[in-house]
Amino acid sequence: MALPRLSPARCDTADVAVGQARESMAPVVVDRDAPATSIPLGLIAPVAALWALVVSLLGVVVVVVIAWVLSSGDSSFSDALRGAATLWTAAHLSPVSVGAATISVLPIGLVAVPAITLVLASRWLVRAVSWPTPRAGVGQAAIMVAVYGLGAAVVASRADGPQSNLAPGRTALNAAVLAAVCVGWTLLRLPSVRAVVLDRLSPSLSVTGRAVVLGVAGMLACASAVAGVSLGAHWSEAVGSYRVLGATGLSSVPLTIVALMYLPNAVVWTAALLVGPGFVVGGGNTVTAVSGATGALPVFPLVPALPATGAPSITAAAVLAMPVIVGALMGWFVVRARRDATVETCALQAAVAGGGCSAVLAALAALTHGGLGAGRLAQIGPSAVSVLLVGAVVLAVSAASSAWALRTLSTRRRR
Question: Is 0.70 surpassed by the pTM of this model?
């Protein structure tokens, strides 16, 4: 299913306008007399939203139907379709209730399915609508976000059944937020919009924002490395979980896909471990750099990566030193970007960046905290409040100390 094609005349006009904007950083002005598409202007944003919804939903339906065909269960085709709609709803991180159990820890990797279609639809919207000023596109973007959210609520309500209970309101809100993020990302890639945003941001705020991005990327990179090393060290146990679950041959494909979808969750949990608070894996059992997982745990390919005991003192020290190194890197970036700022200004700006980085990590922790049914796994994942408070102290102090030391050193060298 493809979106309506743009006319060549309009594409050429848009490309020229964008090229001029990159040179002059002026608003993109596209000739409104050049028709971009045969769709009326008022329907372009709804069409883009519905296209993103339908294509992402069809992609999930195809995968679920294939798995249904390969399985030997007694479920009907309508059950497979309802399951696909439920899975699509879960892709927007909306909790799913099955009987008395609620599944709220959903795979973040599944968000990529609707996100990709939303970005593609947003790009088409940008090229299909003439925007003489950035403000002119806000209305179209808002319509696309609203239509996508309402459509997601409809899908969630239709997927409700006797064995599952979804939350259409929560689904609509999450879908609208995801659509707003994707549309906003696409708009920020326009030279005209980016120029307006950068003009309204002070240089210090711009540097702080880039330092936050650097810090979040650094923390997630370190967490990915630690999680990968731990999973590799317990690779035989991870492979053994397939045999325990009876997943062999083609039946192992769905389990592998689910494990891959939960990999981003594992990275966020590892980031919480690096910061210090760690995460809960059920029954009040908290996994940190110095304490491991105890008690019965579910059989899943990623579970063997959990340490059974606390890491050795040297390993634990190396793990806990990673946030300090990331904070120091943020401080170095602030000093490098603000060459004429005073020592106090650099230290304060680096501390704010460290706090912003911890806030982003706390938001990710909140997305991965919840439950997998009842019993021991009713509460699992990191605490967003703990990640925020401890991360703010570790990252802010290390970033401020690094900025203070580097700026003081550079000032003395100039003298």
Answer: yes
